[in-house]
Structures are given as structure tokens and as C-alpha cells.
Amino acid sequence: MPTATRAHAGATHTPVSASTAVDKEQKGSVRRPFDRSAHVFVAGGRGMAGSAVWRELRREGFTNVVGPGSADLDLRERRDVFDWFAAMRPDVVVLAAARVGGIKANATRPAEFLSDNLRIQVNVLDAALEHEVERLLFLGSSCIYPKFADQPIREEALLTGPLEPTNDAYAIAKIAGIVQVQAVRRQHGLRWISAMPTNLYGPGDNFHPEHSHVLPSLIRRFHEARQTGAPQVVNWGSGTPRREFLHVDDLARACLHLLEHYDGDEPVNVGTGTDLTIRELAEMVAEVIGYRGRIEWDADQPDGTPRKLLDISRITALGWAPRIDLREGLRQVCAWYVDRLASGDLRH
């Protein structure tokens, strides 16, 4: 494997030696459990996904996990990121950091979603390459796929059609991250991989009234309506789009599973393999919250992609499967939300 110039320091990257080659049991699969003393950097470790990855790693016996918050390390600042890598020298990186938001936030602030996510990704990935991090997992999003992709969506659908316009800026940033991971694999031989989770929910979510995703938005709206005795709740869109929802703790298990069992160029979908309409979701949230008023829909507001269900055959072939049922997961998250709201310890 030829050497290549590294992006930041101008030194050459040492090719991966034969002794570190991966024994593949099938295309893309590996069997290499991590040393639980490995130094793991969870970028975005204070966010919903990153904190879930942190919890999973600690449950699995990892003793050296770091994940500074944005107040301690702004991943948009390139010099700060490179200095942090030089000081900490992680063995493994999980890139879960991102600027995220619901359909309104994506549609009204696309420049921020594009710029912030590109800077976060490029800085972390370049610094990881500079310090020869052998194992890295980049977390993308199911919004990378075309708006009208065949269902369920296979990984091969990437770049085969136009994106959903309401979140195309965010999607382009995530696609760039996938391509950078693939480029590093080709040029430098590092065992970096990408995972594409479906819609996530769980403790630590963003419940902002304007910037949150659909499920936390519904939880907040129905809880407030129950508290105030509102006779009706009006939701965006027609309620007919179909979506898939994955508990963030299941995603965290998938991340570790992929790091220990997958080594391939192609991204890997992570989901449940089942979906429901937004109308059905709203009814389920109302039931769990205990709201008994009317549920209405504002069809003048955008629906987004008609359906987004991931084909998860690639990851299930590697031995992973989701464990948390949506209704049970909703009960847990609603209880978490009410508890944090009462204590005043709630993000947004």
C-alpha cells in the first residue's frame, strides 16, 4: 500500500502492516473484540446518541472513555480539535457529534446545518487521520437517501435520486462524511466505517418546541395539552407519512457491534425493519401520555419524505437485532421527560 501525505502535519502515513490485517469471515465481517482498556473518544458524547454510546461502552466494561461537551471542545474549531487529539491520542473514535433538528429547523436554517456539520466532520476525521486512529465509526443519517427511494431502503440507494428538499443541506453534509470515510479507507488503509441510523428517540433528546424531531415534539405537545386541559392538539402535515423509530440504546449496541464485527467500505443501515404512520405514532404518544382530547392535522404544513424504512439485512446478517419495542420505549422516554421537566433538568 503506498504512503500518502497527511492533511495537517505534512508527514507521511505509515501503511497498515500485515500483522494488523483483518481476518474476514465474509465480505465486510470481522471478529475482533476490543481491549476494554482502549482509549475511546465519543465525539458528541453529551448528545442523545453520543451519551447512549458512552453508557453502552461503560456497561460493556470499557474503562477509558472520553467525550467532552461543546463547552470544553468546539469541534467546529479546527485548531482546537487537532490540539485535543495531540494531547489525548485516542485509539478508537465514534463520531456522533452533529447539529441536528426537525423538519422546521432543517428547512429554515440549511446554511447552518451544512456548514456546522461539514466543519465538525472534516475536523474530527482529519485529526483522526493525522494521529493514525485505526478504528473509527462515523454516524450518518437515513436522510442521506433519495426522497423516493424504493422501500425498504438498501444502502445501495445512496446517490441514486434527488433528496428531500427540507433537509438536503444536512443530508449533503452526512454524505460528505461517508465519502471521506471511504476515501481514507482507500488511500490510507485505516479500518474506518459508517453507520446510518433511522429516526432515533430516547433519553437526552431535544424537546425544543421548534427545533426538535417529530417524536420528542409530539411528547412535549401532548404532555402540555394534558397539563393545560387543551381540547385538541394540532400536528404538522397530513399524518400519512410512514417512519421507523429506533431507541438510542439499541443504536448504541449497534455501534459497538459494528466496531467489533464489521470492516467494509459501504455504510450500514441501523433500524428496526418496521414502520408506522405519523398519525399512528401520535395516537400512541397520546395514549402513553394519557391525553384524551382530539388529534388534528394541519395539511398546509410539509410532510417530508412519504416513507422512510431502512433495509437492515446487512447488520442483522452480522448478528445484531433491535431489542426495545416502540411502545415500551415510549413509556420509558415519556417518564424520563416528565421527571426531567419536574426537576428543571431538561434540555430545551
Describe the protein.
This protein is α/β, with parallel strands linked by helices. It has a domain of 226 residues: NAD(P)-binding Rossmann-like Domain (Rossmann fold). Helices cover 39% and strands 14% of the residues. It has ten helices and 13 strands. The strands form four sheets. Strands 2-1-3-4-5-10 form a six-stranded parallel beta sheet, sandwiched between helices. Strands 11-8-13 form a three-stranded mixed beta sheet. β1, α1 and β2 form a beta-alpha-beta unit. α4 packs parallel to α5.
Architecture blueprint of SSEs:
Layout: E1 40-43, H1 48-59, E2 65-66, H2 78-88, E3 92-95, H3 103-108, H4 110-130, E4 135-139, H5 168-188, E5 191-197, E6 199-201, H6 214-228, E7 232-236, E8 242-243, E9 245-247, H7 248-261, E10 268-270, E11 276-277, H8 278-289, E12 294-298, E13 307-308, H9 313-316, H10 326-343
Parallel strand pairs: 1-2, 1-3, 3-4, 4-5, 5-10, 6-9, 7-12, 8-13
Antiparallel strand pairs: 8-11
Number-wise, the strands total 13
The best one-word shape is globular
The CATH superfamily of the domain at 23-203 and 246-274 and 309-324 is identified as NAD(P)-binding Rossmann-like Domain
| Distance N to C terminus | 49 Å
> Total number of helical segments?
10
Say what the CATH topology of the domain at 23-203 and 246-274 and 309-324 is. Answer: Rossmann fold
The major β-sheet equals: 6 strands, parallel
| Biggest sheet strand line-up | 2-1-3-4-5-10
Q: Strand pairing plus helix content: what structural class?
A: alpha/beta
